Each structure stands twice: as structure tokens, then as C-alpha cells.
UniProtKB/TrEMBL annotation:
<dbReference type="InterPro" id="IPR034907">
    <property type="entry name" value="NDK-like_dom"/>
</dbReference>
<feature type="binding site">
    <location>
        <position position="64"/>
    </location>
    <ligand>
        <name>ATP</name>
    </ligand>
</feature>
<dbReference type="InterPro" id="IPR023005">
    <property type="entry name" value="Nucleoside_diP_kinase_AS"/>
</dbReference>
<protein>
    <recommendedName>
        <fullName>Nucleoside diphosphate kinase</fullName>
        <ecNumber>2.7.4.6</ecNumber>
    </recommendedName>
</protein>
<feature type="binding site">
    <location>
        <position position="112"/>
    </location>
    <ligand>
        <name>ATP</name>
    </ligand>
</feature>
<feature type="binding site">
    <location>
        <position position="16"/>
    </location>
    <ligand>
        <name>ATP</name>
    </ligand>
</feature>
<comment type="similarity">
    <text>Belongs to the NDK family.</text>
</comment>
<keyword id="KW-0547">Nucleotide-binding</keyword>
<keyword id="KW-0460">Magnesium</keyword>
<feature type="active site" description="Pros-phosphohistidine intermediate">
    <location>
        <position position="125"/>
    </location>
</feature>
<dbReference type="InterPro" id="IPR001564">
    <property type="entry name" value="Nucleoside_diP_kinase"/>
</dbReference>
<keyword id="KW-0963">Cytoplasm</keyword>
<keyword id="KW-0418">Kinase</keyword>
<keyword id="KW-0067">ATP-binding</keyword>
<feature type="domain" description="Nucleoside diphosphate kinase-like">
    <location>
        <begin position="8"/>
        <end position="148"/>
    </location>
</feature>
<keyword id="KW-0546">Nucleotide metabolism</keyword>
<feature type="binding site">
    <location>
        <position position="98"/>
    </location>
    <ligand>
        <name>ATP</name>
    </ligand>
</feature>
């Protein structure tokens, strides 16, 4: 950008109901900060069926969808905007694979290995692309500055 700072990305991170109820919030936040992310916004919210279905609409035809919605509405979630260079990919790497059982074997230092249970109850979410990140940030926090302005209008 024009001020010479590194281009930074924003991604959406979520601690799912099992993570919040299992008291993993502070441990996860510690890993986030130690890994170089800034938490620039955060909110706790309880998803209802409608909002959870909308959030995961890409999976609406999958066999696991009804279980996913039941899980995601089972308690409050903590949603955060994380900022860092390469935030989208780096947060996905830090959380590890979808199946927390596999994560414990193949990615033992990942967040899902630390606090996830199985292929459904995996404790955390991360946007899977820049486009998903923008959609998901808007979903929870409203519109934000577009990508080409990131770094100059980055108070959000
Ligand atoms: P997320 O979107 O939550 O960050 O997870 P992900 O990209 O690693 O995995 P995705 O394929 O997008 O699946 C979304 C969430 O659905 C639940 N799931 N359950 N029972 C199952 O086989 C199954 N498969 C997926 C998980 O909670 C997964 O994170
Ligand atoms: Mg996903």
C-alpha cells in the first residue's frame, strides 16, 4: 500500500459451541496472538437455525447438514476478525484438518488437535478463501472496506 506497510488480510475465525462451553476460549486466543494475528473485532453470539443454515449454505445438500446445524446452534459461538499477512491460509493451517481425530495424528500442534472431538465437533472455524472471508465478516460484522483499501482503512 501507499504507506509502505505489508499488505494484510482479514479472515473470520470462530470458536464453535464445544470450544466455548469447554472453556477453550482463552487458550485459543493465546495461540492466535502468539502466532502473529491481531484480533481486530470479536463478538459472542447464539446462532439460531436460520442464521446457522445461512452461514453454512454451501453444505445444505450434504448428509451432515442437519447434524451441523444442531451442533452450531447448541450454544454460543465466539466470532473474531483476525488480521495478518496471509491470514486466510495461515489460520486454516493453524486450525488443522476438519476431522479432529485425524488432526491429533497428522497435525498434533493444531487447534483442532488440542480441543476438537471428531469430524463434526471440531471446535473452530476458518474462512476457506478471501471471498469467503469477506462474505463471513460481512455476515457477522456488516460491510467492511474492500480489499484494495486494506492497510489504509484498516481500523475495522
Ligand atoms: P469450517 O468450514 O467449519 O471451518 O470447517 P472445514 O472447512 O474444515 O470443513 P467443511 O467441509 O467446510 O465442513 C463444515 C463443518 O461441517 C462439519 N462436518 N461434519 N459429520 C461429518 O462428516 C462432517 N463433515 C463436516 C464440521 O463441523 C465442519 O467443520
Ligand atoms: Mg469450511
Amino acid at each position: 500500500s501507499s504507506n509502505g506497510s505489508t499488505e494484510e488480510e482479514k479472515t473470520l475465525a470462530m470458536i464453535k459451541p464445544d470450544g466455548v462451553l469447554g472453556n477453550y476460549t482463552e487458550r485459543i486466543k493465546m495461540v492466535i496472538v502468539e502466532s502473529g494475528f491481531s484480533i481486530i473485532r470479536e463478538t459472542i453470539t447464539q446462532l439460531d437455525e436460520h442464521r446457522a443454515s445461512n452461514f453454512y449454505v454451501e453444505h445444505s445438500s450434504k448428509s451432515f447438514f442437519s447434524g451441523l446445524i444442531k451442533y452450531m446452534t447448541s450454544g454460543p459461538v465466539l466470532v473474531m476478525i483476525l488480521k495478518k499477512e496471509n491470514a486466510v491460509a495461515d489460520w486454516r493451517t493453524l486450525i488443522g484438518p476438519t476431522d479432529a481425530q485425524k488432526a491429533k495424528i497428522t497435525h498434533p500442534h493444531s487447534i483442532r488437535a488440542m480441543c476438537g472431538l471428531d469430524s463434526e465437533k471440531n471446535c473452530v472455524h476458518g474462512s476457506d478463501s478471501l471471498e469467503s472471508a469477506q462474505r463471513e465478516i460481512s455476515f457477522f460484522f456488516g460491510e467492511i472496506s474492500s480489499g484494495d483499501a486494506v492497510g489504509e482503512h484498516d481500523e475495522l
